[in-house]
Amino acid sequence: MILQCISLLxxxxxxxxxxxxxxxxxxxxxxxxxxxxxxxxxYAKLDQKGCGIHLxxxxxxxxxxxxxTRVLYVTADACMISHGLRTAVIEKLQEAYGxxxxxxxxxxxxxxxxxxxxxxxxDVLYDITQLGFCKQTLDAYADGIFxxxxxxxxxxxxxxxxxxxxxxxNANINRSPAAYEKNPEEExxxxxxxxxxxxxxxxxxxxxxxxxxxxxxxxxxHAVSMNNTNCLVxxxxxxxxxxxxxxxxxxxxxxxxxSFVGAFASSNLGDVSPNLNGPICVNTGEPCDYExxxxxxxxxxxxxxxxxxxxxxxxxxxxxRLFEKSKELLVNExxxxxxxxxxxxxxxxxxxxxxxxxxxxxxxxxxxxxxFPAMGYGFAAGTTDGPGEFDxxxxxxxDNPFWNLVRDFIFPPEPEDIDCHYPKPILMNTxxxxxxxxxxxxxxxxxxxxLGNFAIIGVPGEFTTMSGRRLRDTVKSAIxxxxxxxxxxxxxxxxxxxxxxxxxTYEEYQLQRYEAAATIFGPHTLQIYQAIYKELATAxxxxxxxxxxxxxxxxxxxxxxxxxxxxxxxxxGWFWNFGDVVxxxxxxxxxxxxxxxxxxxxxxxxxxxxEKTFLTVEKLVNNGNWTIVATDANYExxxxxxxxxxxxxxxxxxxxxxxxxxxxxxxYRIRHFGNYKYILGGIYAYSGTSDSFTVVA
Length: 697
Ligand SMILES: *[C@@H]1O[C@H](CO)[C@@H](O)[C@H](O)[C@H]1NC(C)=O
Ligand SMILES: *[C@@H]1O[C@H](CO)[C@@H](O)[C@H](O)[C@H]1NC(C)=O
Ligand SMILES: *[C@@H]1O[C@H](CO)[C@@H](O)[C@H](O)[C@H]1NC(C)=O
Ligand SMILES: *[C@@H]1O[C@H](CO)[C@@H](O)[C@H](O)[C@H]1NC(C)=O
Ligand SMILES: *[C@@H]1O[C@H](CO)[C@@H](O)[C@H](O)[C@H]1NC(C)=O
Known about the structure:
Blueprint lengths: L1 H14 L6 E9 L5 E6 L7 E5 L4 E8 L4 E7 L6 H15 L8 E5 L5 E2 L6 H4 L7 H19 L3 E11 L5 E2 L2 H4 L4 H5 L8 E9 L5 E7 L17 H14 L11 E5 L6 E2 L4 E4 L20 E4 L5 H20 L5 E2 L4 E9 L4 E5 L5 E5 L5 E2 H5 E2 L2 E2 L4 H4 L5 H7 L7 H7 L4 E3 L14 E9 L2 E5 L3 E2 L1 H17 L7 E5 L8 E2 L2 H4 L4 H4 L7 H18 L38 E3 L4 E3 L3 E8 L13 E6 L5 E6 L5 E7 L7 E8 L7 E12 L5 E7 L3 E4 L1
Parallel strand pairs: 5-6, 11-12, 25-27, 26-28, 30-38
Antiparallel strand pairs: 1-4, 1-8, 2-3, 2-7, 3-34, 4-5, 8-10, 8-16, 9-13, 10-11, 14-15, 17-24, 18-19, 20-23, 21-22, 24-25, 29-31, 31-35, 32-33, 32-36, 34-35, 36-37, 36-38
The chain binds 2-acetamido-2-deoxy-beta-D-glucopyranose (5 copies).
């Protein structure tokens, strides 16, 4: 008996891993979608079409394995994640790695940039402003995300994980404070601010040399520093923060390269804006109406901006604030090591059918259920970050051919739906629509990944500040009360796996501002999620099995509607060749100036140049070689493409480079790379090179 005990003890000692020694893989890949003529996703503005690139989109993958269980977390520079996109990635993963990565252990989250191409959502409502489904976007995103995961998978090393957090006060504001104030006073008193200011970080350190190989930072803020007049593809404030952090740790690398992978990921950003100057009536300079965000009854003039002098500067200011705090935390000694087993839990839930018991304020128990998805009137008004997000007046005229194609399928809501969503006045009763196919998802993915004492809650939409706080509390207390680690921290991974618009609290819902009008499963949506995630957390800690739930429909197998037109052909005109420079840079530029060159171009959609670039800025080095100092993934460069209209199929690429402080004086040139589509068929690569110019101090 004693011997047995001793040998068991010995086994326990020998197999017990050294503190927090996990196998971790990190990987990053370019996932930039079609940068021209596809509507950017987020503001739902049909005419906000891509016209080039400011920052490339990246996917960042993190694999955690404790020797028996593996989880995969990916954050992607996309507006959100759709079930169709996650499925496309899973198909590639299963082809390569069998059942290693499944819906159960793979969490895919979007950063919520509003300046990246859409058309990958599949559900009709979310693809309308993109003129329907765009296969090129879906493929670019799925391929890029898969490549990031593959790199992480092939790079597993022994690593320790640390968690830490700090406040970033000056990087977000609440854009619906009137709704936030509907939450009970006692609850609001627990918090100093009406948004979450905490930046929560996981740091991954290789055991071999004790150096960081990656970090994930979660911070609640909409990636809408770039407003709805922007047409350049960009990962916006959080994407640029990632590039800054990666440049810090990969000092020799161009953006998107180097082994350190640093992410800024989305959280409970539903009612959170980066436009720190707040909204004003841009026509009069007066404050907007507090409850309705209107100016004399009109919403289109009430617009938030700042803190920079223009949107590019605002994007940078927010990015730098997040990056600086993250950098501090990476060297902060008060970080706590993540320890304990890795676990995951996942369940599909049909929200309109889900019933839960909730406790009313007077203590009585009531059984509630989710509603069929519907959007309220407040949704059409948009937000102060982008008024009129869904312009139905425009859409009901001939301006949107896709809308015209599908509008005949819209039916008025049934009395039961009106009751269920009350007090939301229903504008679009999407949940009952089955033609041509699903308009908004009914079955959602709910999921928790647990790294020892750190839980990542994957949520299928945009939780408001208070919704996120309540859900985190629910999960944390479920973990601890069921015997889980009492030092557990929880973070909310926003816009994960399925997209179902917003989740406001019951109290916020009563005011029907934008976030509430877009809470598609009705007033009790959050309470239903709290009940679901409580069950998930309990099952996770206790190790009990949980019902998998109903499988969502696979829309990708349908004949998806699309009015996205293909590139017909490109023309260089009679006297030019593709890549010819039609406007040379000046002979000499000073630091602080912007230099530009214009080239005869082909359509960027002919080849997305994944993991490559549409431009380079090159410096002449001593031995006569040119070395690349910037690509189209740099903040300092802009690649802008336009059809010139003079000759059919003709277009130009303008490449701009902002010559900033760190640039060394010397001789430089600008190059452009692209592909043109020949009128008789075939796609051919070309390149062009500007005259050289000098940069003087
Ligand atoms: C580490 O972070 C804590 C909390 O933010 C802060 O109080 C402390 O000053 C930081 N320490 C260092 C060395 O930066
Ligand atoms: C967007 O930002 C630009 C500045 O970069 C500003 O001129 C413009 O008015 C803004 N537009 C909207 C609709 O916010
Ligand atoms: C308690 O509150 C609920 C909803 O607010 C209401 O329907 C119910 O009648 C109340 N019960 C009592 C006993 O007052
Ligand atoms: C957490 O649990 C440990 C024992 O596992 C106990 O010593 C400690 O007091 C607990 N901490 C809190 C905050 O409950
Ligand atoms: C740069 O120049 C050296 C010496 O002239 C040459 O060996 C080398 O191949 C060049 N590198 C590139 C990238 O062209």
